[in-house]
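[[Encoded backbone]]
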Amino acid sequence: MKIGHFDLKTTRTLIIAELSANHGNNIEIAKETIRAAKKAGADAIKLQTYTADTLTLNCDKEDFVVKGGTLWDNKTLYALYQEAYTPWEWHKELFEVAKEEGLLCFSTPFDKSAVDFLETLNPPAYKVASFEITDYELVRYIASKHKPIIISTGIATLQEIKDVVAICKEEHNHNIILLQCTSSYPAPLEGANLLTIPDLAQKFGVIAGFSDHTLGITAPIAAVALGAKIIEKHFILDASIGGADASFSLDVKAFTQMVQAVRDTEKLLGKPTYNMDEKVIKGRAFSRSLYASQDIKKGEIFTLENIRSVRPGYGLHPKHLNNTLGKCSMRNIPFGGRLKEEDIF
């Protein structure tokens, strides 16, 4: 499967820098953030496309006030989203900046009008946010555009994941990526449950990845080691910009370190192989083999006193030791001489 020019079937992980609310309500900061994401090693930049009115009601009743020990407690949902949204009139210019930088650019639409708007920008993929996974009709509408659909599973039950995968397939969209995600901000390490990543891939026959809200860069590295083909992480130029997502976003230095660690992990994973490369072959010089531990005369019997399995590895393989004992030497072998197959009678 490809997202734009990026082939998810290769060994390279797609690293997405999530812009989200990390723009300080300033388009110049947003553009600078996209350019910085490229320098930090990201492959893609992701926006969020909504307005407060497309997400919630302008209501201050208790149901609409954030609570429960979050970063945003006591704010109304409307006020939070009004503060955090990315103006739609910025999108075209941000897409263009990303293209100039060679970055993929796409977004998370939060209602059908956002999908229609994004279609005018021809994004290479769509993202479904964790909290929208239960909006089956929105998922269906996104899937109907027949572009790769990346779905965060943060608050979903297993049945709901089954349902949305089935919905995508009903729309003849099989380009499905499921992201393991913990919808806490920031997310505790013990809640990451990264072993879900290979399970998602196996259970649903899809590409799996990780949308990370933990602090630091450890979780993405572990996720890649477990088979994640996409890493999504919130990115901010500098935490001093502030905003709804600043406290759990990586700055330029940390994001760069994460990218490098992921790329190193890809190299470390390599591929299943038992073939020996040149370095391994050279390294076998330090393995053991059979050598004369005393001077041995032609016709002398091989014993544990006159031959030993020692380093280096230029002599006869140690597996031949027991078959060699009790047999006669076919030549004079000096102390420290290699045993060879033709030496044994």
